[in-house]
Amino acid sequence: xxxxxxxxxxxxxxxxxxxxxAMHGYAALPADTSRLVALLLASGVLGVNGFxxxxxxxxxxxxxxWSLALACWAFYAERVFLLEGINDPRIVHAVTVYNxxxxxxxxxxxxxxxxDTIKALRELNS
Length: 126
Prior knowledge:
There is one protein chain. The chain is mainly α. Helix content is 79%, strand content 0%. Helix 1 packs across helix 2 (33-55), helix 1 packs antiparallel against helix 4 (91-125) and helix 3 (59-81) packs antiparallel against helix 4. The two termini are 18 Å apart.
């Protein structure tokens, strides 16, 4: 049996994960384990949120949420496997594209999660 608080909890944890991705998803590779764990947890929460949205057949929202969850890991993989160190001249373009993509996804997901929070509060109130 589904609790009436479940959508509100999912929305709240998603907003926290969004904040973690905004604060710790910058372009530098994770040097300490606390940042790595925070990014893994945030990606996990966003992944679960994506599965909930997929069950509700909200495919545009699924695409945005899963893209945000995987964007930092894709960029870190690009830096490790494709770019030839910090002196590679392509790093400037890669960081610029990553930041534009990340900030766009953060804004879209913020709108999605605020909308989900308002909807969960309305359903809880009624």
